[in-house]
Amino acid sequence: MTRLHSHLHLHRLYFPAATAAQTHAEHQRVAAAIVAGEPAAATAAMRAHLTAARERHLPAFDQQPAPGQTRGAG
Questions:
Q1: How many CB atoms lie under 10 A from the CB of residue 52?
Q2: Residue 44: exposed, middle, or buried by beta-carbon count in 10 A (0-12, 13-18, 19+)?
Q3: Contact by Cβ (8 Å): 52, 29
Q4: Theoretical Cys-Cys bridge with 49: which of 12, 26, 62, 66, CB 3.0 to 4.6 Å?
Q5: Residues 23, 8: contact at Cβ < 8 Å?
Q6: Closest to 14 in 3D by CA, of 48, 57, 66
Q7: Closest to 10 measured CA to CA, from 44, 74, 57, 62
Q8: 73 Cβ partners below 8 Å, 6+ apart?
C-alpha cells in the first residue's frame, strides 16, 4: 500500500489536474459499459483508455533520466 501511495504521489506531480477530468471520463465509459452488460463496449473503452493513458505518460519518461543515468544518455 505504501508503494501504491508513492506511485500516486509521483503521478500527481507529473500530471496536471486537467488530465484528471479526461481520465475520469474514460473510467466512466468503462464502468458504464460494464454496468450495461456490454463486454465488447467495455473492452473497447478500456483499450481506448489505456492508449490515451500511454500517450499522456510517455512524455514524462522522456523528461526524466532513468535512475543512474544522466539526461541525454542513451
A1: 15
A2: middle
A3: no
A4: 26
A5: no
A6: 57
A7: 57
A8: 65
